[in-house]
Known about the structure:
Blueprint: H1 3-15, E1 21-30, E2 42-43, E3 45-58, E4 63-69, E5 75-77, E6 81-82, H2 96-106, E7 114-120, H3 130-145, H4 153-171, H5 178-185, E8 190-195, E9 201-205, E10 213-219, H6 229-245, H7 258-263, H8 270-291, H9 299-313, H10 318-329, E11 334-338, E12 345-351, H11 355-369, E13 375-379, E14 386-387
Bound molecules: 2-deoxy-2-fluoro-alpha-D-galactopyranose.
2-deoxy-2-fluoro-alpha-D-galactopyranose (GAF) binds next to helix 5.
Amino acid sequence: MNSARAAAEAFRSVHGRPPAGVWSAPGRVNLIGEHTDYNDGFVLPFALPHRLAAAASPRSDQVLTVATLGSDGRIQDAAPMTIPDLRPGSVEGWSAYPAGVAWVLRDHGVERGADIVLAGDVPTGAGLSSSAALECAVALALLGLAGEDDPDLDRRSEIARWAQRAENDFVGAPTGVLDQTAALCCIDGHVLFLDVRSGEMEQVPFDAAAAGLRILAIDTRVKHAHSEGGYGERRRGTERAADLLGVKALRDVGPDDLDSAVDRLPGELGPLVRHIVTENQRVLDVVALLRDGRIGDIGPLLTASHLSMRDDYRISCPELDLAVDVANETGALGARMTGGGFGGTAIALVPESAVDTVETAVAAAFARAGYRAPRAFVAVPSPGARRDEL
Ligand code: GAF
């Protein structure tokens, strides 16, 4: 059953009536451009077919109730929340995400309570942006109940900023705006080229299958959380480097200035700057190849991105490195970790004929190393957040 229908049915079983509507948002993979978002740089995500759906009905008071359908088929309720009483720190656990969205929307005139029941299949803690899918589905649901359906692209980027604020200031995870923008603004069959500084977007066609290729996503099942230390440390490091260099953000350091910038910084900051500067350039190079219809040529840039994250930004882990190495040794044209790192998912660009070989080889290598069995799936660019027809 798809997520929207599952959420509608779960709503019916909790509330004894159908929801007023169902809104859903997808997970994402980022093809390239990692940790560049909070440095005002470039990113290139696409939406996954995996979605998180929010079935919702308005209430006559200012109470928000949220329940979620677990993968075991059981429904878990969060304690009801009174929207005017929401404060950062007042809600913990998974329900802090919907609460944070309601807290932000309150500042934009949406104060009416709602009953929400969630269901979906975006893997959690897998670097596939389940948190942003949750935030964006809830944001569209609350806005939809307030009479705003089908926001245009500009409005969607604004809503993405609101969802980011919920995650930063209410949940307490210092993330950028990549995931929320991907969830809200990606479209079927395309990667989204986003210039975070200007907010400019270009939908770049991405049809790997037409080129005889696939993007194989390999979830290492090493869980990560961005409210933990490593992500924030990297972010603070790059902000400190920008300060020391006297620029607004590392986006302002071009490839030609890189060596002199690194020379002027304390040793530990140089590699962080090198990753951001070279990664921004790799995004531009990948976009140029895709505009030319040369998907098959982006592989070396994907692998270079991984090595930069492994060696300079230091956000990989042995399981991600193994997945990337084995994929590249057994037929992939290139591979890299995707998302925030410290676990999660790797993606590999693989000729269709080699997909099974790569998948089997990675699983075997994980078994030999004593790691948990990875989960692999072919990732296809899919629609962004929307109100679902039932
Ligand atoms: C996580 C964050 F949420 C994004 O904002 C981004 O920084 C990404 O890690 C790394 O590119 O998904």
